[in-house]
Design goal:
about 5% helix, five-stranded antiparallel β-sheet, mainly beta, 15-stranded antiparallel β-sheet
């Protein structure tokens, strides 16, 4: 790892015959780590003040004001010496960086409580909320290790030394609670949420909700039960909105036309002169809130004086007007992809929660809890005009691409009628010994050719079950708490494995062997082999999430 070669800071590197750095080979990993210094300082302040005042002239009327802020500033510097192979030809790096966040909140509401005898209670609430989010960016020149300028800031950016991305959220809301005989509970709410991300005529979304609960424990047939300590049936319906589509001018102000000045790295040639361009960004004045409607039926229960209690919920969530990035027809906008309200998604599931006080004593106590969620989702609409034979849209964390039969290493796909993010892969063939055959796949459509028409949807990264288990044990002043978490039924694509099982690189040269090569015997990677279901693996896990041991003095 070390060679004493001062040309590269004492680290050994592959060189050409003339002693110059060979850029076609891997660099010394220890040198990459040791010759990089990235130090930063982050300062953050979070504050909140809340005032609650009961108005004396109207019994039951109170007002609340809540002010909050979250301010963050970070400064740092990246330094790589001129001798480092990673930046050898540009003579190192010495670049400062700086950013900041400002989030502020103002919320106020009035609440009115009144009882009409012993059997009827009412609570009314009306409120207002305003939030401002600011992302502060500071821009600097790109410097060499000796401090000289490699690329000037005004050439990299648009001449601004700083800029602020910001957006606002404004909400009006109201809620009414009715309690009849402590047995029948009725709640209704209405929110009007406004976002500066949308045009004036699309800015507000209106989201109602309603809920009803019946406390069966309060009825005569259960009131005196020593076994049942609580039993309540719940029905609910509600809508919520989503407007978070990221930062950047095209996301914060996408409803109006914006322009960006290109850097020196992206210029237009006119004769012998290169010009930086002023480019129009994506624009869509029709963007609006994404809306999710939730239907819920629930049961709360308690037995044996509350020592065993929990809940069961069955739900369906229908999301429409999904804020999706989709490809656009050529000439219809200033880019080939942009955010639109396209698509719908349905989630259905059931949730269980149970808590039990196993031991309750003066010195020793033990309580356990468990929860489980079983969820299924299905895409019900993907584009404005879903064709019956549409394959879908291939997706990945780095972006999206339409699948047209050409090679694409993005292995997940969204298709109407299927789960979100299903793996779109070839079915691997195996030999008599159960080992995979290199570049051999099942001809699923039977046409004698292995091509994109043989790809199929194979499982999903979404777990079928999400489980949790925890407990709290105490003896006198000593307390022990623990939490386990588990996901079952999900799958993942092992990208690292897909890139490391081949004995030859893309040039056909033998490279260091991964030990699993002895099993797979894959010789060289191909476009189709990358898309094999051989690399789709179960992602089940059981994890001890946290353990806390405490002592009370």
């Amino acid at each position: 790892m070390y060679s004493g070669n001062s040309a590269f800071g004492g680290f050994s590197e592959y060189v050409n015959a003339d002693g110059s750095l060979n850029t076609n080979t891997a660099q010394n990993p220890l040198g990459l780590i040791e010759q990089r210094r990235d130090l930063s300082t982050v300062l953050r302040s979070i504050g909140n003040i809340q005032i609650d005042y009961k108005l004396p002239f109207v019994p039951g009327l109170s007002a609340n004001v809540n002010l909050g802020y979250d301010v963050q500033r970070s400064n740092g510097n990246l330094y790589i010496p001129a001798t480092a192979a990673s930046n050898f030809f540009r003579k190192g790096v010495d670049n400062p960086y700086k950013q900041g966040l400002n989030n502020t909140l103002l919320e106020t509401y009035a609440k009115y409580n009144r009882s009409f005898g012993e059997d009827f209670k009412m609570e009314l609430l009306a409120g207002y909320s305003f939030q401002k989010f600011q992302n502060l960016q500071y821009r600097f020149a790109d410097n060499r290790a000796d401090g000289t300028v490699y690329i000037a800031a005004e050439q990299l950016y648009n001449g601004q030394s700083s800029l602020t991305d910001e957006y606002d959220l404004l909400s009006y809301y109201g809620r009414a609670n009715l309690n009849i005989k402590d047995r029948y509970l009725i709640t209704g709410t209405l929110r009007a949420d406004g976002s500066s991300r949308f045009a004036a005529d699309k800015r507000y979304g209106y989201f109602p909700s309603a809920a009803f609960a019946w406390r069966l424990k309060g009825e005569e047939f259960l009131k005196n039960s020593s076994t049942v300590s609580d039993l309540k049936i719940r029905l609910g319906y509600g809508q919520t909105g989503q407007q978070d589509i990221g930062l950047g001018s095209s996301n914060l102000y996408g409803y109006q036309q914006t322009y960006s000045l290109s850097s020196i790295l992206s210029q237009y040639a006119l004769g012998n002169t290169y010009y930086r361009t002023l480019r129009a960004e994506y624009v869509n004045p029709n963007l609006k809130w994404e809306t999710t409607s939730t239907y819920n039926v629930g049961l709360d229960y308690g037995f044996f004086g509350g020592r065993l209690y929990g809940s069961i919920d069955v739900y369906q969530r229908d999301t429409r007007d999904l804020l999706n990035t989709i490809f656009l027809a050529a000439g219809t906008n200033y880019t080939n992809a942009g955010i639109q309200n396209v698509g719908s998604l349905t989630n259905k599931g059931v949730e269980f929660a149970v808590n039990m006080d196993v031991v309750k004593g003066d010195k020793f106590n033990l309580s356990l809890n468990a929860n489980a969620t079983f969820n299924r989702n299905k895409l019900t609409k993907l584009t404005n005009s879903d064709a019956p034979d549409a394959i879908g849209v291939v997706v990945s964390s780095s972006g999206i691409a339409n699948f047209d039969g050409s090679f694409n290493q993005n292995v997940q796909i969204n298709t109407v009628g299927y789960q979100e993010g299903a793996f779109y892969v070839y079915e691997q063939k195996y030999g008599p010994d159960g080992k995979p055959l290199n570049n051999e796949f099942v001809d699923r459509n039977g046409d004698g050719v292995i091509d994109s028409k043989d790809l199929y949807r194979y499982n999903s990264p979404r777990p079928k079950a999400i489980l949790g288990f925890g407990g709290n044990l105490s003896y006198q002043r000593v307390n022990l708490a623990f939490t386990f978490r588990s996901n079952l039924g999900g799958y993942l694509y092992n990208n690292q494995r897909s890139r490391s099982l081949f004995v030859q690189n893309s040039f056909g040269a033998v490279r260091n062997e991964n030990q699993e090569f002895l099993y797979s015997r894959f010789t060289q990677n191909t476009e189709q082999q990358y898309l094999s279901d051989y690399y789709v693996e179960k992602s089940d896990f059981l994890r001890l999430q946290n353990v806390t041991l405490g002592y009370s003095f």
